[in-house]
Write a structure and sequence with these properties.
Helix content: under 10%
Structural class: mainly beta
Low-confidence stretches: none
Order of helices and strands: EEEHEEEEEEEE
Distance between the termini: 40 Å
Number of strands: 11
Length: about 120
């Protein structure tokens, strides 16, 4: 069973940066590279929304509000996906979830990101 663990969240001031990590266990590197990895977020009172995805080939896709500020990447040798978040605003405050998709959907427990002065 694949297990995803997010880390790197926290409290940051507007304009600051954070780097989220998503470590996958219970799978080999050979299989991990087949997953489409994604980051989602859910703000209080709102539905969960897609933030960014990265395909097995490295193609990326971003939600419009984060384009140019967030970068998704993956290190298949480490079974880890990342989300570099720059120029953060209070509107980015949410719980961020990692997703892995290959035949099945897997989710992490989430990591809180709070952008506030």
């Amino acid at each position: 069973q694949v297990r995803l663990v997010e880390s790197g969240g926290g409290l940051v001031q507007p304009g600051g940066s954070l780097r989220l990590s998503c470590a996958a266990s219970g799978t080999s590197s050979m299989i991990f590279r087949l997953y489409v990895m994604g980051w989602y977020r859910q703000a209080p009172g709102k539905q969960r929304e897609l933030v960014a995805t990265i395909s097995r080939g490295g193609d990326t896709n971003y939600e419009d509000s984060v384009k140019g500020r967030f970068t998704i990447s993956r290190d298949n040798a480490k079974n880890t996906a990342y989300l570099q978040m720059n120029s953060l605003t209070p509107e980015d405050t949410a719980v961020y979830y990692c997703n892995a998709n290959f035949r099945s959907d897997y989710w992490g427990q989430g990591t809180q990101v709070t952008v506030s002065s």
